[in-house]
Amino acid sequence: MTKTRISALLGASVLGMLLTANAVQAQQSGNLQFLIDNGPQSVAVAEAWVAAYTEQNPDVTIDIEVRPGGGEGDNIVKTRLATGAMADVFFYNSGSLFQAINPVQNLLPVTNEPWQAGIQESFKSVVSAGGEVYGTPFAPAMGGGIFYNKPIYEELGLQVPKSWDEFMANNEKIKAAGKVAVIQTYGETWTSQLFVLADFFNVLAAEPDFAERFTANQAKFATSPAALRGFEKLQEVYEGGYLNADFGAATYPDGLRMVATGEGAHYPMLTFGVGAIAETVPDNLQDVGFFAQPGDSADSNGLTTWMPDSIYIAKTTQNPELAKDFVGFIGSPEGCDIRNEAVGATGPYMIEGCELPEDVPPAVADMLPYFQEGGQNAPALEFLSPVKGPALEQITVEVGSGIRPAAEGAALYDEDVRKQAQQLGLEGW
Amino acid sequence: MAVSSMGNVAGAPSQRAQAQKRSPYPGWFYLPAAIIYAVLFLAPTFASLYFSLTRWTLFDSVFIGFDNFAQFFREPFLVKGLVNTLIYAVVTSGLKVVIGMALAIMLTSQIVARGYLRSVIFFPVLVSTVGVGITFTVLMHPTQGMINETLALFGIAGPGWLVDPRLALFSVALVDVWKGVGLATVIYIAGVVAIPKDYYEAARIDGATKWQNFRYVTLPLMRPATATVITLSFIGGLRTFDLIWAMTKGGPGFASDTIASVIYKQYQAGFYGLSTAGNVVLFVLIAVLVVPLTMLLNRKQGHE
Prior knowledge:
The complex is a heterodimer.
Chain A lengths: L1 H21 L7 E8 L2 H17 L3 E8 L2 H13 L6 E4 L3 H4 L3 H4 L14 H4 L3 E2 L2 E2 L2 E2 L4 E8 H7 L7 H13 L3 E3 L11 H4 L2 H7 L3 H6 L9 H15 L12 H10 L2 E7 L2 H8 L7 E5 L10 E4 L3 E4 L6 H11 L2 H11 L18 H10 L5 E3 L12 H9 L5 H19 L5
Parallel strand pairs in A: 1-2, 1-3, 8-9, 11-13
Antiparallel strand pairs in A: 3-12, 4-5, 6-12, 7-9, 7-10, 7-11
Helix pairs in contact in A: 2-16, 10-12, 12-19, 13-14, 18-19
Chain B lengths: L1 H10 L1 H10 L8 H21 L2 E3 L4 E3 L3 H8 L3 H31 L5 H13 L2 H11 L6 H8 L14 H26 L3 H9 L4 H12 L1 H16 L3 H6 L11 H10 L3 H32 L1
Antiparallel strand pairs in B: 1-2
Helix pairs in contact in B: 4-15, 5-9, 5-12, 5-14, 6-9, 9-12, 12-15, 14-15
C-alpha cells in the first residue's frame, strides 16, 4: 500500500514538473479545499483571495472551510492531520504551535518554491522544521503592546509612557479623573496573557539568552527576575484598581470597542486588533494609538513582535501543484494588495515588494517605527522556543484578578511548561 | 444479573449444556451484536488502557509506563478539580432531591392547571445544555446581566456570579439544578402516584397529621424514587462537563474546574496520552463512588 502510494506521489509530482516546465504561466485547473479560522477578518481576506484567484483561473474552484479559533481550532487541525483528512491548504499559527503539528510528517515543504525567495528570513525561521520551510505568511507582522485612547490622553495631557513607572503614573491620573485606566477582558481567557507575553522584549533586554536556557530547562519564569516581571505587572495593574468593573466577563470585542470609544484608556493587545476596530467601530479608528509595553527602564524601550500566522499545504493533498500555485499567489505582492483592499493594513508585511497604503490607521503608524531603522524590537518567546504551556491563560486570569500572587502563578506556569516539553520530547526535561 | 447467571454456569456444567440445547437461537445469531460490541466497545476500551500508558501525539506513541498517571496526580489543578467535582455532584443531587420532591408533592395535589404546570417544570430538561449555559452566562453578567440589574432595582449590589472564584462553581450548580430538576420531579411524581391510597387511609384512622403523613408514609415509600434520582444525578454531577464548559470553561482561573474539564483541557493541549489516563482515572473514580452508593441504596430498599 505504501509502495503504490509513493509511486503514485512520484508520478503525480513528475507529471506536475512536466506541466510546469511546459507552461510556466499556464492556467490552473482543479479543486482545492481551503481551511481557515472563523475570525471575520480571516474570512473576508480568504474570500477576497479566492475570488481574485479564481477570476484569473476560471477552471479552478476553491472551497473555503471555516473552523473555530483557539484551543478548539488546535484540536480540529491536529485531528484532521492525524487522520489524513486535512484540507489541501490551511491556515495555522507559526512558531511553537507549528512545531506541535509534526510538520515534517504532515506538511508539504515549499523551501525551493519561487515565491519563497521574497519572504523574510525571520519569518521562514518560525515555519521551518528539519531544514525545510513549510509556511507562507497569511498576514502582516504584529506587535504586542498597549492600545490607548488618544482623546483621553489629550484631555488629561498625558505623554506616551517609556517606562513602567510612567505607565503606572498615567494610570493613576486616569483613575483620578474617574475613568477606567486599564481594560481587561477575561471573558475570553487568551486576552489575559498579553502583559506577560508582550513583556518579552524587556526580558530579552535583561537576559539575552533567556529563550535558549528556557528551552533547555535551565531558566524559569519564577526564578528569573526579568521574566517574573510580566506576572508582577499583571498583578500591579489589578491591585491598583485600574480595571473595568466587568473585567472578568468582558470579551475581546468589548475590549476593542471600549478602548476605541473611550470607555477605557489602555487595552493590552496584539496589533491585529486594528483590523477588528476598523470593522466594528470604524468611526473611532483614528482615536486609537499604540505603544510597546514599557520596561522598567526608559532607556531600553522596544516592541515584542509576533510573526504572522501562516498558510500550509497538507502532504495528503491530491493537487500539490495547484495548491502551491494558490499559496504562491497569496505570498506575492498581488496577494498583499488584495489583503489591503479587503481588510486594510494592520502592520508591516514579511513579503518583499509588499507595500502599505499611504493612509494607515494611527495605531499601525505608531507601530511601524519599532520595525524601522533605529527602532527596537524582539520576537515573542513563542517564536524562539517551542515550549509554551497550555494553561498560561488560566494562570494569567488568576494573577490578573487577584486570585493568585504573581510569584506563585509563575511557578505554576513553570510546572505547566514541563508537560509541553516532555510531549515534544525535548532534551533535558 | 450477568454475574448471577455466570455463577450458575460455573456451579452446574450439566445445566449449562441443557441451557445451550434449550437456547432458541443458533450461534451465528449472536454474531452481529458480538462484532459491534467488540469493535465499538471492547477494542476502544483496551486501546485506551494502552494509550493511557504512552506519550501519544496521535501520530505516534512512546510507551512511558505509569508516568501519565503520576503526572495527572501531580497536576496542580487536579486536586481542586476532584474536590470541585464532589462538591458539584453532592450539591446538585442534594438540591434535586429536595426541590424535586417538594415540587412533586405540590404537583400531585389538587391545584389549578396541574398538567400545564407539570410540563412547564419539565421544559428545561428538553433544552440544549449549551444553549442554557450561554443564556445564563448572559443573564449572570456582573454589570449588564439581567439578574444583577434586577437586584440593583432593589438596591442590592449583585455578586459576580461567574467571575467570583468563590461563587462560580455554585452558580453553575444552580443552573444545573434548574435544568435537571424537571427529570427528578417526574420520577418523584411517578413515585407519589404509585403509593396506594390505603396507607393514607390507615394513617388518617390513626389520626396522623399532614406532617406525619409525609414523614411516615410518603417519604419511606418514595425511597425507590429517591434512589433513582440520587444515582442518576450523582453520576451526572460527577461527569458533568458541557454546562461548566459553556458557562465558565473551568474559570475564573481554575476555580470551577472539574475532572472532566481538566481532562478535556489536556486533550485540547494535545496531551492525548495524559488525557486518556485522566479518563481511566475518571472511570475508576465513578465506579468506586457509585457502585457502593447503588448497593447501599438498593439494600435499604430490599429491607422494606
